[in-house]
């Protein structure tokens, strides 16, 4: 599996790099290619009961989300309400995972992403949320972006209410890390993110990509099991010989 994911991560990066050679002044187009590359990868490697597309989420009360780069939803039990080409509108209850994709990101765009994920609060849907960055900032820079975010109102740092709307997982590919929301013990007991890698693969794209894929796959597994009488054999069973460990933390607010 390691050699396979090493090949896939290089393939993903190569496709984006090739696009940038020809499309230097059209960042939205380059971003669309990055999304398409990741959507294709997930569609090829997730169970057939789900679909991986771009589009919008709608609630039974008529609430409509902002556009989503990648939606993973239950296409076996739910059909889209609307489809125009490769863009769909799907019911909130069908959504399993939501992924925002960036080819690169600076402080202003990172802050826009935080606001983007907070916009889903009114939908009150149960889905795992991801930020995936192909050309990612360094982990120290991500930490700085969190602490320079301008909170609305008088309270100027994250708390339990605002933390729940941050992405559950943040994956960077180059440089590479895989951040997961977690309880962290750093200078204090706090809530924030832990950065995970497989042992002996710290900082590698293969480790980050594999952990990202397994996280998405586990979200799909949990959803399918919730609506099935049978027990699935987790995909993680094929990774028994690999141990993931947290090696860095982003401490956002005290417990």
Automatic annotation (TrEMBL):
Give the superkingdom in one word: Bacteria
Organism annotation: Pseudomonas helleri
Parts forming coiled coils = none
Q: Name one Pfam family in it.
A: DUF6602
DUF6602 domain sequence ranges: 25-121
Q: Identify the InterPro entries for this entry.
A: DUF6602, Thiosulphate_STrfase_CS
Q: Which PROSITE patterns match?
A: RHODANESE_1 (PS00380)
Q: What is this protein called?
A: DUF6602 domain-containing protein
Give the GO molecular function terms. Answer: thiosulfate-cyanide sulfurtransferase activity
């Amino acid at each position: 599996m390691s050699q396979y994911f090493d090949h896939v991560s290089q393939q993903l990066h190569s496709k984006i790099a090739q696009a940038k050679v020809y499309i230097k002044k059209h960042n939205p187009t380059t971003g669309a290619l990055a999304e398409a590359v990741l959507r294709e990868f997930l569609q090829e490697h997730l169970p057939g009961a789900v679909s991986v597309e771009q589009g919008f989420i709608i609630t039974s009360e008529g609430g409509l989300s902002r556009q989503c780069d990648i939606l993973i939803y239950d296409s076996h039990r739910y059909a889209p309400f609307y489809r125009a080409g490769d863009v769909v509108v799907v019911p909130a209850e069908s959504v399993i995972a939501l992924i925002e994709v960036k080819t690169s990101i600076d402080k202003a765009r990172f802050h826009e992403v935080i606001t983007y994920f907070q916009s889903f609060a009114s939908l009150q849907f149960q889905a795992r949320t991801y930020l995936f960055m192909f050309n990612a900032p360094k982990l120290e820079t991500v930490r700085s972006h969190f602490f320079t975010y301008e909170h609305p109102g008088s309270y100027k740092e994250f708390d339990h209410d605002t933390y729940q709307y941050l992405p559950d997982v943040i994956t960077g590919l180059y440089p590479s890390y895989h951040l997961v929301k977690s309880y962290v013990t750093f200078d204090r007991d706090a809530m924030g993110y832990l950065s995970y890698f497989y042992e002996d693969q710290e900082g590698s794209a293969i480790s980050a990509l594999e952990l990202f894929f397994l996280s998405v796959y586990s979200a799909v597994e949990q959803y399918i099991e919730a609506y099935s009488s049978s027990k699935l054999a987790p995909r993680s069973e094929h990774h028994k010989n690999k141990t993931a460990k947290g090696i860095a933390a982003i401490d956002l607010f005290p417990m």
